[in-house]
Amino acid sequence: xxxxxxxxxxxxxxxxxxxxxxxxxxxxxxxxxxxxxxxxxxxxxxxxxxxxxxxxxxxxxxxxxxxxxxxxxxxxxxxxxxxxxxxxxxxxxxxxxxxxxxxxxxxxxxxxxxxxxxxxxxxxxxxxxxxxxxxxxxxxxxxxxxxxxxxxxxxxxxxxxxxxxxxxxxxxxxxxxxxxxxxxxxxxxxxxxxxxxxxxxxxxxxxxxxxxxxxxxxxxxxxxxxxxxxxxxxxxxxxxxxxxxxxxxxxxxxxxxxxxxxxxxxxxxxxxxxxxxxxxxxxxxxxxxxxxxxxxxxxxxxxxxxxxxxxxxxxxxxxxxxxxxxxxxxxxxxxxxxxxxxxxxxxxxxxxxxxxxxxxxxxxxxxxxxxxxxxxxxxxxxxxxxxxxxxxxxxxxxxxxxxxxxxxxxxxx
Length: 413
Fold this sequence. Notes:
By secondary structure, the protein is α/β, with parallel strands linked by helices. It folds into two domains: 43-79; 88-410, Alpha-Beta Complex (sialyltransferase cstii, chain A), CATH 3.90.1480.20. Helix content is 29%, strand content 10%. It has 13 helices and eleven strands. The protein has helices at 47-66, 73-76, 89-100, 107-112, 148-157, 191-194, 212-215, 249-260, 266-269, 292-302, 316-327, 366-379, 393-397, and strands at 2-3, 8-9, 175-179, 199-203, 219-224, 239-244, 287-289, 330-334, 364-365, 383-384, 401-402. The strands form three sheets. A seven-stranded parallel sheet has the order 7-6-5-4-3-8-10, sandwiched between helices. Strand 4, helix 7 and strand 5 (219-224) form a beta-alpha-beta unit. The protein is globular. It is an enzyme of class 2 (transferase).
């Protein structure tokens, strides 16, 4: 029975003792804060703890937004080319206009005539041919003196020595694109334009997969020396010719080994300044040997721009441009031009090495090369798509000698 005035319930078991009455709480200004019992699942934060947690969350949110801005370039670069926009729409439109225009036979040679050294840049053999032996007067890389036996073995392993019919001047007008390794190519979005050229020349281990948006996807001729050859098989996809640039007799032995699949001895490998690739996934008919006269003639022209006298070894970039003049009616360049006035600028389009890395070099005179290429552009003999070959008074007054022996980060311009 329920008694309303006492709000109690009568227990049917009269023998059971009544439940104890709960104590009535009394106000106490000095009570201690409640502490959750272990395992009770309750959790309370004081004002100080709440403030600390709020600051941590706030700093975390700002960090998520701001830290990527300060990431080193080599970490940001791994994001690839899918997240940036063309950095210069004017150059991109200029390239599109150039491609849409007609190809005019003999364009390069006709515009070379305005340069005093034009005679030294024409009619240069491109590849060494077995049926045209010549007496070599200079040693590698300007000639092949002292390497005749190594050369004979290498040529014997090559089914083809001359230009393929598809690369000759006979027939239709041809356009060449020489893709330099310069950081100026990064963010250019020129890849689809580059792939439209008849002959696309690349240099050493400059990567293609992953950089197609800026650098294109096809390779007609890749100029390499052993230490600069790409190690990944995927870099040789869509490649027509790999052309060896000979810096020493052992380079010819390496080429013979790659073609015949006969490995070099351990002792021979010790003489390379860096580990070299043992296999290149191309057929023997896809290999050539660049004629040293290309290197020699390029160096002779560069001597006109240099302060030091003597035989000059050009970069593969400058040599590739001279080679292109022998192959095509129109020659365009992308990824050329060292910006020595900005040492923090990107040196290569595919890695985070900075421009000031060139200061440690003393073999290649990149200032002389920039002046040379700038004159070719000014004469209309070649076109600079990425626009980094402008010549300033600082360049002419303070030429920079750079060297490689040859280290990979110095090849090419």
